Amino acid sequence: MVRKLFRITTILGLVAVVAGLGSAPVLQARQDDHIGNRGNNQLPPQTLRSGFESTDQLLRDVERAERAPLHSVWIVESSRFMNVPFGGFQPDKAGLNTTVDLPVNVGIIEGPDGTLTLYDTGWKQLAYIFDWNTSCCWKGIRDQMVAIGLEPDKVKRIVLGHGHWDHAGQLSEFPDAVVYIQKEELKQIDFFLNYPVDFNAGHIRAVNTVDPLTGAQVGPPEQACARTPVCGYPPQTVQEILGKVLSGKARIIDGRHEITRGLVIHPAFRGHTYGSQLLQVNTARGQIVFGSDTYSSWTGIRDWLVANIQQTDTVQQFLAYEKCYVLTSRLFSFNNCVAAHEPTAYTSAYPLTANWWNIPNGNCSRAAELILAPGKPTHVPGNPDRNLCVDTTPPPHTVSP
Amino acid sequence: MSALGAGLHRRITPMSVLLGVVTLLLVGVLTFAVSREVTTTSPTATVAPSPRPSRPPLEPAEEMYMRALWPIHADVERSVMRISLGQILYKTEDLSRADLKTRIEQALTSYREARTRMHALSPPTSLRHDHDQYLAAIRLFEESATEAMQMFKDGREEHLLAAYPKSQVASDKIREVGGKFWPNEFPPN
What letter does residue B49 receive in the DSSP assignment? Predict the structure, then answer.
């Protein structure tokens, strides 16, 4: 009797394991493909009409992209924020009372014609970053690219996931590249610049969110960027964008935009900032989706935790997570979502980035080869340096006296 | 057939053989997964970070100067941002020519006032260089805005492009000084 029971239990267990291995991901998003005909009531109430994409629309983009050429993809670590309180990064984990080191990742995508597209550009380094900040490992993006065997002059496009200073710097390093940014991103800054700061102690501000000497955030209690609409845009960053606009090298877009076959921008409005945008890339491992700070944390996407909320509507961030789940539903699912600040990046814990190495002479900054197009040679050195390190060498001043 | 052989024959049924094969397969997959996980790249060593430089305590005179510069800095930043975005939104036809002109005129006024207010400050010797840098930046912003205003006289938008390099250098300068004085002004984003 006991033997029979044991045998039945074993069989049931095996069936469960096999079923678990073989089950396909189930899409939970509604299949609303006729928004225009049915009116606003068909949209989820929290969804912004502008920038909304239905599951069917996204799946059609997958089908179109799958017929397009394959791309090669790398990420490089522009810099690293050190000792950031975990709660500031993932509010659900504030109770851990620990700190975390966060990479600032930039995506590099090589198309079939050999031209390169950047997703974000890291920050523009000046001495201040090093002098008093706790950051590490900054290296100019052009130098990083050369060190991993890519030609900076082949960069023809830059897609800005959002316009914050640590993601939209160094634009002027690529004078020939066309920048893609959402109009919504620019309009929000402009709106809040005109917001009265003399009302209600200036709790809503575009710039200058700290007490000048203590460094404490203005407003009740420690409102930080999470409750300050546009605190991440110094004039310097907006100037970089202006330079592109004035030289005719900017595409200011509104919503979804197919750059070229297999390279599609998807809006993620308020997923991190008002005009955040994703980038879908067709590769040999299916669709890879870059999300900048909308996808600040990959584990956050995996476990459905909001992260780095800043100007985020958390529902919009989750809807943006779902966009990645939909776009990657045929292969690898959330494993193909690329996060800007995932702490486990460049380790096997974040499998997409596991093929990493320290960039030679890169101040401890790291690179990872995510996927190659068929026939393309690897850029990973034969004997890669994979010793995690922290570099504190001061960068040179870039401003002349 | 021996008693042992007969007993084995009774126990080795097709079902038990299948079970055995599946179990062996699963154990194999598990072993492969574990060994792969163990051998896959992971940080093998950590170089301990050297101590970061910490900001020395401010002298009272330095503190007073930074406190006085803060509201000037706020006005300058806001004016620069309004001009920059004004030009972008003008180019995208979201802002009228007249509104752009108004913004640039307001910024020019703001820069002149900022310069006057800065001349009234007495920076301590240790901050004299930063003070001069900031003043130089405001002058560059003024020159840039003045150049941009030419567009409304002769109608040539090339003046905006000509005005740009000075405002770019100036914005680097105020970021440099601002970052040194108020390092948390723009926190990690």
Answer: P
